[in-house]
Every structure is written in structure tokens, then in C-alpha cells.
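in:
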């Protein structure tokens, strides 16, 4: 399990986490989001950069990821093998 990014914002109404990536991430990757009160796993099914759908994103990108549960600022995103 490797850290791939950190949550910078959560959009409650649309269930999207804004994540700054430190490693590449792509559609189909299995991720775990962990924080003080956050702990769940899911597959990345929808990812956007500046409102446009992307299949993969690179380190330094700010991506919007559709999440299945609430996340919080500073939660850590891990990629699971």
C-alpha cells in the first residue's frame, strides 16, 4: 500500500474528494482513504481535472475523485495492489 495523495477538499453535495497527487493514479485503481475518522476502500471509477474526465493523472495534479463515503481535509489516499 503506497501513499498517492492527500485530500484538500470534500464536496458534500456531489460526493467528490479533491486530491493532490504525489504519485500517478488511474481509473480502475483500488484506493484506500484513511484519516482520523475516515477509513474505506473503493475502486476509482470517476476522476476529473478541472471538470474534464481523465483516465489517469500524474503527481502534482489536483483531481476530483467520486467517493463512496465522506472524506475530510488531510485524509491520506493510498493505492492498494
Amino acid at each position: 500500500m503506497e501513499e498517492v495523495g492527500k485530500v484538500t477538499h470534500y464536496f458534500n453535495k456531489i460526493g467528490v474528494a479533491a486530491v493532490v497527487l504525489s504519485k500517478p493514479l488511474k481509473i480502475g485503481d483500488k484506493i484506500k482513504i484513511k484519516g482520523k475518522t475516515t477509513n474505506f476502500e473503493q475502486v476509482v471509477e470517476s476522476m476529473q481535472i478541472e471538470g474534464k474526465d481523465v483516465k489517469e493523472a500524474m503527481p502534482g495534479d489536483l483531481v476530483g475523485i467520486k467517493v463512496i463515503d465522506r472524506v475530510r481535509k488531510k485524509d491520506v489516499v493510498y493505492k492498494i495492489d
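note: The beta strands are 2-11, 16-21, 25-26, 30-34, 39-43, 47-49, 52-53, 56-57, 62-66, 76-80.
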